[in-house]
Design goal:
Layout: H1 2-16, H2 19-47, H3 58-66, H4 71-94, H5 101-129, H6 136-148, H7 153-177, H8 191-223, H9 231-240, H10 245-269
Length: 272
């Protein structure tokens, strides 16, 4: 077991040190940032009533890209970047340094969970690039319906909702405490001040959006209505229905744009 583990770590280290992999990982951060900027723009459009039938999530952003002349080429860059970023997170999980076994595996699971997210978004990007009219919100609702129809599925949907809500809270905490600075080599002022401010605003906005997604999963389970669990698109549009929803959703949209720009900065100054 020890030899196998050492071999895996050695192989992971070799891949991690590869300059091409590092460039692709930075590309992944950049394209993820681009998607969040587009999602933020769509959210603002929905808030002011100009969003039409656009989906305020990754699939909506990807469809926006595909509608432009150069969008097809950009889509493939998005696909490659996100899959590369997923590979990077898998490697990061393997190479976690922590003496305490529980903390080590906790961090590994966190890194690998991020890898799964990037793989899912990358898969969505790939399907759009291949001409599919896939919808993240419909896929999420369909998954929820399948789970709710299964024995014990209600509890699983509630658990998913609570997990996503906790993830949202963690984003807010990271933003407020500026914990994201550990991921960066923060540049000197004034650029560094701008990057940190974008990170704070972006992480808080992303956390709010995820928190609403989690709440909607729980609502879907309690009401046995899978349509409630429609992912990020449903969460952002639910915000529009709140008192002062236009202001709230517009603010979150601006925050998501800030998060996207921060990810662009992270592509430049990330500690890899």
């Amino acid at each position: 077991m020890g030899t196998a583990s050492g071999t895996a770590r050695s192989a992971a280290r070799t891949v991690e040190d590869n300059p091409v992999v590092k460039i692709l990982a930075r590309t992944g951060y950049a394209v993820n940032g681009l998607l969040h900027i587009l999602i933020g723009i769509i959210a603002i459009a929905v808030a002011v009533g100009a969003g039409g039938s656009q989906e305020a999530d990754q699939s909506g952003a990807l469809k926006q890209l595909s509608s432009h002349p150069a969008g097809y080429a950009v889509l493939w860059i998005v696909v490659i970047g996100l899959f590369a970023l997923a590979l990077w997170q898998i490697i990061a999980g393997v190479l976690v340094r922590q003496d305490d076994a529980k903390k080590r595996w906790g961090k590994r699971i966190g890194e690998w969970a991020k890898a799964v997210v990037y793989l899912v978004i990358g898969g969505t990007a790939l399907s759009v690039a291949l001409g599919s009219d896939s919808s993240s919100s419909e896929s999420t609702s369909s998954m929820s319906a399948t789970l709710l129809a299964s024995p014990g599925g209600v509890f699983l949907v509630i658990a998913i909702g609570i997990g996503v809500f906790i993830a949202g809270v963690s984003f807010v905490v990271i933003g407020v405490r500026q914990g994201f600075k550990k991921q960066l080599t923060v540049p000197p002022r004034p650029v560094g001040t701008v990057v940190v401010t974008l990170g704070v605003v972006g992480y808080v906005a992303k956390g709010i959006a995820l928190g609403v997604v989690g709440v909607l999963f729980v609502v879907a389970a309690v009401t046995n209505d899978s349509e409630q669990a429609s992912g990020l698109d449903g969460a952002l549009k639910a915000l529009a229905g709140l008192p002062y929803g236009v202001v709230v959703l517009s603010a979150v949209g601006v925050g998501l744009i800030a998060y996207g720009v921060y990810l662009g900065a992270r592509a430049r100054w990330a500690r890899l």
